Amino acid sequence: MMDDSLLCIQGLRKHYLTKGGFLSGKGGVVRAVDGVDLEILPGETLGLVGESGCGKTTLGRIVMRLEIPTAGTVRYGGRDVLKLRGKSLREYRREVQMVFQDPYSSLNPRKTAAAIVGEPLRIHHPEWKRRERERRTRELMEVVGLNDEQMSRYPHEFSGGQRQRIGIARALILRPRLIIADEPVSSLDVSIQAQILNLLKTLQQQFSLTYLFVTHDLGVVRHMSDRIAVMYRGRIVETGPCEAISGQPAHPYTKALIAAVPGTDPSLRNGRGVAGAQTNSIDGTETGCIFQSRCPSRIEICKRCEPDLKQHGPSHWVACHGPDR
Amino acid sequence: MNPALEIKALRTQFETERGIARAVDGVDLAVAAGKTLGVVGESGCGKTVLALSVMRLVPSPPGRIVEGSILLDGRDLLNLTEEQMCRVRGREISMIFQEPMTSLNPVFRIGEQIAEVIRLHRGAGRGEARDASVEMLRMVGIPEAHRRAQDYPHQMSGGMRQRVMIAIALACRPRVMLADEPTTALDVTIQAQTLELIKHLQMEMGTALVLITHDFGVIAEAAHDVAVMYAGQVIEQCPTREIFASPLHPYTVGLMESIPSMGRGGCRGAMLKAIPGSVPPLYDLPPGCRFRKRCPDAFDPCGAEPPLVATRPGHAVRCWKYGNA
């Protein structure tokens, strides 16, 4: 662990108990996050990529302290996030904010845009004069590209892209340092997606923000990230600099992900496609590598022994028995 | 060769509180047997209404096919009675939708749902239909087809359900298949598998396929020809390789440049070239060219509506930049 990291996650686990279904019999354990180590340096963007159900959203929610992990630690600026209480927790919540995927359901339909954006100020700075709060709200809405006249409108009067701008303004109003963006452009049209990605980049420079950028879209993650972590079934299977992950991926799953992106340059398709789908084991009795059932290059040891993250290149780590062969 | 499906001057409108929405506004398209026509555009461009019009499934009221013709092997579907149309749907033209969960009936086993189509359209007996449905499941690559035919939709993953939808759509070997965002709801690795499957089966059966998507990557993978839609109209149409090699319409160019792709640009790319503004509402279309307000190349003639004109054989574009003023 480096001392200068802004966020440091170690050995993080989140297991959910499933109740026995009324038809399917006894319950089990879903290992949504299963032993994750990650760190984010101030000012960088860490892209967390994976398919649905891999645990990337749960990870983001734990960092937000919306979920309590089963095991592991989350340290923010050296302090244990999970032990924060009262005033220090409020302070943490000011500094770490979230942008959600769905701008339709994450905005209160009964509040105006200005009220939505200004609400965090009302909660965290009740001592401020109303005029001061309004001034800051207006200022920030202008920064994200919304005009004065739009301040008194309701969410349904905005397009998807504009709603996401409101969501971003709300996340920024308290001047946070770390933004967790969970699929922030996935529900937007391509032409609008580019506007929002550009806005996020501009804001990052303007406000010295650090991003944990969660997405399933490899093109987007490559465009936005300094470093990329690839997640599969609750674990990080590969992590490293953006160039290494997208240019010389080492884990068969990363290769398959890149090969599966439709319409990419054929020369980039050095990996083979994979059969099957990501399945989540409920009982947790299987041994060996979590990817073995879909892996095109599995070997004997993959069945018995789970691979740890091993260094593959400069800051490039891979959890696979293969690359060292 | 005569096209299997030919759409001529089709106009579909919806009555809304705010005026008449011209969802499909004078569209001409054709697709030959064994070929794939990709229809690409952002939400609200009319691509889904186009497909529903061909199926004659536009909800009416408020929707109405105002004029045009839809020729299936030369026969105009718009002249058929509803009863005759029922025999065409599923047998001669079929459709797959984006969301495989909502388009399967949750209370019937999937084998029965496929068998139903076969009984209805091929007049097969129960036993024969049951065998044929298992055969279809095997064809779409579902392992242990015999056993899985007994499953209910909720017991299958998203990718498997979409395979079932494809099995239903192809059960009667239709002349034409419409696929509306068939892979959008699926994870990348599953998306690639599903697209391969559709391509493979379509070739084998000689079906004409209309592939509707927002994703140029999907077009690149699967379509022979492509039509780009904007605000209810086709604004550019050509063979697929030409749309990537030499896109003409400023909207097509803008759309392609706004996608953060795996092939183009480096990691942490510079700002994307976003298209400013958003799509005009279909009930309040501006006079003249519909893209004028967002277009970087707009000039005087754009006040008048441009026609769709061939700039060279097989490549048509709706833009004054390319002459014909």
What does this protein look like?
The complex is a heterodimer of chains A (325) and B (325). Chain A has 325 residues and is of the alpha/beta class. Helices cover 31% and strands 22% of the residues of chain A. Chain A has a single domain (7-237), classed as 3-Layer(aba) Sandwich (Rossmann fold). In chain A, the strands form two sheets. An eight-stranded mixed beta sheet of chain A has the order 6-7-8-3-9-10-12-11, with helices on both faces. In chain A, strands 2-1-4-5 form a four-stranded antiparallel beta sheet, covered by helices on one side. In chain A, helix 3 (113-124) crosses helix 4 and helix 4 (130-143) crosses helix 5. Chain A is globular. The model of chain A is unreliable at 265-272 (pLDDT under 50). The longest helix of chain B has 18 residues, at 188-205. In chain B, helix 6 runs parallel beside helix 7. Chain B has an eight-stranded mixed beta sheet with strand order 6-7-8-3-9-10-12-11, with helices on both faces. In chain B, strands 2-1-4-5 form a four-stranded antiparallel beta sheet. Chain A binds chain B through residues 45, 51-52, 159, 161-162, 189-195, 197-198, 201-202, 216, 218-220, 222-226, 241-243, 246, 256-265, 268, 273-275, 277-279, and chain B through 42-43, 157, 159-160, 187-193, 195, 214-221, 254-255, 258-263, 265-269, 271-276, 278-279.
